[in-house]
Amino acid sequence: VALVRGVADGFPRCVTEHPPDPPLDVVTARSQHDAYVLALQSGGFTVVRIPADEDHPDCCFVEDTAVIVAGDALLTRPGHPSRRREVAAVGDRLGSLIHVEAMASPATLDGGDVLHVGSTVYVGVGGRTNRAGYDTLAVFAEARGRRVRAVRPRGVLHLKSAATALDDSTVLLHRDSVDGAAFDGLRVVESPDGDPAAANVLRLPDGGVVVSAAHPRTAEAIDALGYRVVPVDVDEFHRADGALTCLSVRIR
Ligand code: CIR
To answer: pTM of the entire structure?
Structure first.
């Protein structure tokens, strides 16, 4: 199952590091979102949709609101205060599907900081995710048989803004943003594109890998390693500091 959330009319007002120029366009974003959903479905996900929340321009970045470990959900407390109330509706929907727990103040954590590779959970700390957020997730994940490790990404919003998994033993990363030494014991592949977001790819249940259409060199490199690449255009979300993974919560 992949949970997605609609793009709000107010999407152009979402939180961004730099004001997008030209302004974000909700019509473009929605058509890219539709294509993204189709790619998830074609790759084997059953897609569950939650309607957009017009009070929360960032609500389509649903990944940040929940972390799934061994089929159970930990609802987050997003690092940006304007995003905290996105969580309730996600929790309600997930609660109808799986076991759900919540995270308490002062913990903050964005799902974009949580990278699962095999039985290890890597957590980006120091940005939207604080130590207490890390600790809460560590207890939750270790109780479910996972090893948990902190990583300090540099100059990016989230850990997964610059590092994701290609399979259970391979990490794709942008070398200036994430130190490969953090992934001891795994095969580390560096994305050849200058943009950290090129390293944000999404694994499909059928083994395919969704890659942003904005990063053809990374797509080629992954293809050369033998993965089946599925390009999807998410430019409008890149301009809002988002990438492929942030648009869904995957329950495997
Ligand atoms: C934010 O700043 O929170 C959103 N504009 C972008 C969130 C992207 N989330 C993600 O990559 N997991």
So the answer is: 0.98
